[in-house]
Amino acid sequence: MTLKRADAGGRPVPVRRPPARLPRPGSGVSSHAPADPTRRPVPGRRPAVALCPLALLPWLLVPVLAQGPVIVPEEELPRIVPTGFYYEGQVAPTQMRNAAAVRIRDRKHVIATLVDNSGYASEIRAKIEGFWATDVPVRLGGRSLEVGVYPFGVTAEGVLNVYDLAGTLRFSVKTVRDASLRNPRPLAMVIADDGVRFYRGRNYVLVGFR
Asked: 36-47 as b/e, with b when 16 or more CB fall inside 10 Å?
């Protein structure tokens, strides 16, 4: 921009204003002009920023929703497996070393355990050796089992019998013998290629979740 000033004789003399000096890089001085407080924000920009977390929410939920059943570690079993089960007028103590559980989701489990049935009559000991406790409806060997607690026993022929707490037989299913299983435990639940397996020794049935 060119300015004018008068000399000693009163004649105008052109004067050039020196160019504005930009701050050197790294000086810490901003080259931007101060914000205009009267300037209105561009419509639509702020909602776009606010919606970004919402747009990412489905991607964050996918790993949670896709997670399937998991075997509960042994050290956690005492927190979720009951110490005993009531049946026929008395409590059968849980064999915690022969207990297993599957976590379906937070605070939802399927529990199976053997019990000490030595205090029962011989006819009860012959058919009841453990208990199922489930927080969700399941399919056991293809048969439906609703939420609840169920006594069970596996015969020498490999038949799994499931009863209600009144001692009435709910259903019987034939187990599959796994001859390739190494070091079978008296009771276990294992996640295999075909799903969750409930093992009684070398015999197992598949557990499905509805």
From this structure: eeeeeeeeeeee
Contact status, residue 208 vs residue 195, Cβ threshold 8 Å: yes
Residue 66 reports pLDDT greater than 50: no
**Residue range(s) defining the domain that contains residue 138:** 70-209
CB 195 within 8 A of CB 180: no
Total domains in the chain come to 1
- Do 187 and 98 contact (CB within 8 A), yes or no? yes
The answer for residues whose C-beta is within 8 angstroms of residue 29's C-beta and 6 or more apart is: 23
| Residue spans of alpha helices (H) in the chain | 45-66, 77-80, 122-125
Residue 37 lies in a domain: no
Residue 109 located in a structural domain: yes
Q: How confident is the model over 80-93, as pLDDT tens digits? A: 999 999 998 899 99
Q: What is the pTM of this model?
A: 0.68
Residue 47 in domain: no
21 versus 89: which is more confidently predicted?
A: 89
Residue 185 amino acid letter: R
* Residue 119 near residue 125 (C-beta atoms within 8 A): no
